[in-house]
Amino acid sequence: QVQLVESGGGLVQPGGSLRLSCAASGIMFSINTMAWYRQAPGKQRDLVATITRDGSTNYADSLKDRFTISRDNAKNTVYLQMNSLKPEDTAVYYCNAEIRTFRGTNNYWGQGTQVTVSS
After folding, report:
1. What is the pLDDT along the chain (119 residues), one digit of tens a residue?
2. Which of these, 10, 7, 11, lies nearest to 119 by C-alpha position?
3. Disulfide check for 29: which of 43, 65, 83, 100 has CB 3.0–4.6 Å away?
C-alpha cells in the first residue's frame, strides 16, 4: 500500500523558515508529478507548488518568491522550503503525488503537517 508521510511542520516566528518533507513508500512503479497544497482553517485546500519527475516546477503566484519545491527521485521524496514566513502562511500542508502502481495511476495524499506562523 502506498503511503505519503509529511514531516517538518511546526511553530515558527514571522520571518522564519521551515522545510517540509514528504516521503512516498510502498510498491510503486513510478512517481509522476508531486505537489504541495495547504488548507487554512475555514478555507479550501489550495495549490502551493508542483514539480514533475524531470524537475519542472510551478507555483502559486503569491508564493513563488518565498517558497521552493524540490524532489529527490532516488528517495521518493518531495520538499518544500518556505522562507520569510508570514502569519497568513499558517495552514495544514498536504503532500500529493501521482503514482503508478500495479493498480494503475492514482493520486495519493499525505496526512498533513501543521505549520503555524506566530510570534
Report:
1. 899 999 999 999 999 999 999 999 999 999 999 999 999 999 999 999 999 999 999 999 999 999 999 999 999 999 999 999 999 999 999 999 999 999 999 999 999 999 999 99
2. 11
3. 100
Residue (of 118, 112, 117) closest to 45 by Cα position:
112
Measured CA distances, 103 to 28, 47, 58, 100, 111 (Å): 10, 26, 28, 7, 21
Taking the chain, what is the end-to-end CA distance rounded to the nearest angstrom?
40
Cα pseudo-dihedral 15, 19, 20, 26, rounded to 10: 180
**Residues near 3 by beta carbon (within 8 Å), at least 6 away in sequence:** 24, 25, 26, 108
**Alpha-carbon separation of residue 109 from 24, 84, 85, 86, 117 (angstroms):** 10, 26, 24, 25, 23
